[in-house]
Amino acid sequence: MKKGIHPALKPIHVVYTDGTVLTVPVVSNMQKASIQLDIDIKSHPCWNIDKRSSLSETSSQLQKFKSKFNISYTGK
């Protein structure tokens, strides 16, 4: 493998919503040394069945969607 043709990797810290820190090598011009996630696999409703109840069933957009497509979803 040729030397000097690959960009340098620098470590960046990814901070999950529960405070867990993962260090990954990246090729980037980012000035930040870390990224704080707003939502991750531990807190996203699609991946965590306990968090699914956080979806609002009374949302007007959700009600419009349900009525448009004649959907009656009970959540079970």
From TrEMBL:
Belongs to the bacterial ribosomal protein bL31 family. Keywords: Mitochondrion, Ribonucleoprotein, Ribosomal protein. The gene is rpl31. GO terms for molecular function: structural constituent of ribosome. GO terms for biological process: translation. Coiled coil: none annotated. It holds the Pfam family Ribosomal_L31. It comes from Seculamonas ecuadoriensis (Flagellate). The keyword Membrane does not apply. GO terms for cellular component: ribonucleoprotein complex; ribosome. This is 50S ribosomal protein L31.
